Amino acid sequence: MENDATDDVTAGEVPDTEAAVDAVGVTAEADHGGGLSFHPMDQFIVKPLFGDAGDPVYWYTITNATFWMLLTVACVALLLIVATRGRAIVPSRGQSVAELAYGFVHKMVEDVSGKDALVFFPYIFTLFLFILFSNFLALIPTSFSPTSHIAVTAVMAVAVFVTVTVVGFVKNGTAFLSLFWVSSAPLALRPILAVIEVISYFVRPVSHSVRLAGSIMAGHAVLKVFAGFAALVLAAPLAIFGVVAIYGLEVLVAAIQAYVFTILTCVYLKDALHPHH
Which Pfam family, giving just one, matches this sequence (predicted)? Predict the structure, then answer.
């Protein structure tokens, strides 16, 4: 009787096990066959350079984020040091690019913030080139975008905020507070406008950083979505066209966001140097 019961239980379990195996097989075929499975946000995961997502990250661990930031710094150094070391009267391509970038940012700082702000030109020029190269290197397939992370953009934005605030008080003293007092407005509205000005001033690093990180992250996520749809036969032509179009747009966004971050820095610096409304 015990043997019969054991046989019955075994016989009852085998079909369930076989059904489970068949179900797993069907799921695997769906995932690896005609199904569509992609995760557009996985590309933003910070992980060890020679590890997987979820591996422990210590202060000395070289991650994909630090690697691409170091690569960005190396590219900036190659442009400004190696490409211009000849200092030829007839410049090479690399020297021409370096001179154009230098002149572009120099004129921006002078026109927006004034000639007295040119002392801060090296700092602003460094910000511009770092963001520009980081954005463009992130367009390489399988690369990583440091500027898509708020941790990176927030550090730059807070550094600008602190620098501008310190410069404002050092140069103008308490007169820097006139930035928040709109003397041209009616007297009854000035306290209300002062509160609004103070709030908007302290929100600057948030908007300054979120604008850059959000734009880069959104663009790369959309690219990954279109690339995922390209795996479907019916949607492939439209998806490939979408990838090309979005990629072209991302090239523009990479340059525009570097320009926007830089010119806003110049505007904030102008307020610190000339705070009067």
Answer: ATP-synt_A
